[in-house]
Each structure stands twice: as C-alpha cells, then as structure tokens.
Amino acid sequence: MANDNWFVIVNPASNSGRGQKYWDKNIAQKLVLSGLQFETVFTEHEGHGIELTTQAIAKGYRNIIAVGGDGTYNEVVNGILNQKEVLPTNITLSMIALGTGNDWVKTMHIPTNIDDAINVIKNGKTYIQDIGLATYYQGTQKKQRYFLNVAGTGFDAYVAQRLEGGKRFGKLTYFIELFLGLINFKTIPIRVKTKAKEAKAKVFTVAVGICQYFGSGMKIAPNAVPNDGLFDITLIKDISKVGVIKQLKNLYDGSFVKHPQVETFRTTNISIQSSQDIYLQLDGELLGHGPIEFEIVPQSLKVLVNAQEMPG
After folding, report:
1. Domain check: are 179 and 292 in the same one?
2. Which structural domain, as residue segments, surrounds residue 212?
3. What is the rounded distance in angstroms from the CA atom of residue 96 to the CA atom of residue 110?
4. Less Cβ crowding at N or C end of the chain, within 10 Å?
5. Is residue 305 assigned to a domain?
6. Strand 231-237 relative to strand 262-267, pairing
7. What is the pTM of this model?
8. pLDDT, tens digit, for every residue of 49-83?
9. Is the dihedral of CA 109, 113, 118, 123 positive or negative?
10. How many domains does one find in the chain?
11. Domain boundary residue among 100, 123, 146?
12. Residue 215 to residues 72, 97, 220, 237, 263: CA-CA distances in angstroms?
C-alpha cells in the first residue's frame, strides 16, 4: 500500500563529514517546520543508499528525499531504477544538496539554500529526465550502474581516483586534487565507437553527459538537455597541461568547446576501449575500469525541480 509521507535518506558523511551536523542543527528542524511528514534513515556505508531506497519502495514509499552529494543521489537513483515493485517514474525524487560539488542541481536549477530547496519539495514541478546505464568491469567481473548527471574516463576519473584516497578539505578538495593531478596525468589512447561513428584518439577526458556540469561547476556538456533522449559527448583530445590551465576559465562557462582539440557530438550509446588501463567516474564516484559502454534510458527518473526555472 502506497505511503504518501516522504522517506528521507541522509548521508551523514557528505560535505567532508559535515552532513550529520547540518542535518542535526538545521535541516531536520526546517523540514518539521515546513509541515512535511517524513521518516529519516542514515546511510552507514558505501552502497547503503541503494539498499535503503529499495527497502523504502517495498514498504510503500513513493516520495523520496536524498540529502547529500552527487554520490548519494546516484545511490538513491540506482535503488529506484533497480527495484521491481513499481515503474521508476511512479517514484518522486527530491534533493537537498549537501555535497562538495553539487553538480546535478546546477543543471536542474535546484537551489542549494536549505529553505529554498524545501520550497522546491513543497511547491516544485515534476520533471522526467533521462538516465544513463554504464557497463564496466571490477577485476574480471562485469558490472552495471545507472547515473543521472555525467560519467566519463580520463582526467576526471584520475581526479576521482585521487579523491578516493586523499585528505578532505571541504569545497577546496576538488580544486587541490585537480591541480596536483595535472602534474602527473598523461593523455590516454582510446577507441570510441557509437552506432554512427568510430574513432581513435589520444584524449585528456571523455565526458558522457545527461546534464551539463561536473567537477564542482565545470560546464563540461554545455548544450546537454536532460530529457532529450541523448548523451552529450565531450572529447578533450591531446591537449598540453599548459593548454588545460589556459582553458580552465572557459571550462566553467562552457566556451572551451570552441577549442580545436575539443569534439562534441550526441548519441544514444557509446563504447570506450583502450590498450591502457582506463577508469570510470560516474556522478563523481570512481567505480571500475574499461572497457566501458554507455546507453541512454530515456525519461526514466521523475524529480522535483524549481517551478520558476525548469531545465531544458
């Protein structure tokens, strides 16, 4: 039997471990004062958000709030897409952004201010966006994972790899690792294949975008439309480290796509292979290695967005 209350999944480790404090001192009270009826659970380990989401839907919950960063959202989305109780679009998902990057909410025009985010939960409009499905490997084991924002390989996965084992410095963390990573990273030879084309190139990054931003605000897929049934692919080819640094400002407004070493195109599917090790980042999380395949799952996730500023 369906439950009209909200099921709130909080990642207490989000925002470099500050998630619990923000929840206790601010968010929980504001949700109560807003009049929303809700039950709260906390993630305790990697992958727990998938389990909690699946369990909540089995109990009859159809409204879910994810409180955390892009990794938390990704786990909740995988719970929604993998469960077998109801169609994924029968579930309404809303977000309170507590991450260090908060990239998905930028495309969707969901405010990071807590009061404004709660207002979207109460008064926002539903929007049905595309989802991506990545197929990759962990060791010899073939794996699959859904994503709602941007996935890729190359430098972005290398930075995700560094972030996984490094120290956390709040919102500065990504920028610190980005500059340190530039010192050591080397371009990777890859083969890209879609239904329409096949190409070989040395690349700095391959980004597979449903939405526009990654890496704490870089507009990596500036023309991406989240519900058009297509990935926006951005290939940054063999560009020097000095060239990358010169383009950093342009990465934040999307104008870097005019650079001669950048290629963009749209597709419903793409496979990426390399003679070298390539790693997968997916919504900012490092997951496994190549060969990697991506396919679009059109209009399969229902989210709440700002009624005044719809994405698209």
Report:
1. yes
2. 132-298
3. 9
4. N
5. no
6. antiparallel
7. 0.92
8. 999 999 999 999 999 999 999 999 999 999 999 99
9. negative
10. 2
11. 123
12. 16, 15, 9, 18, 19
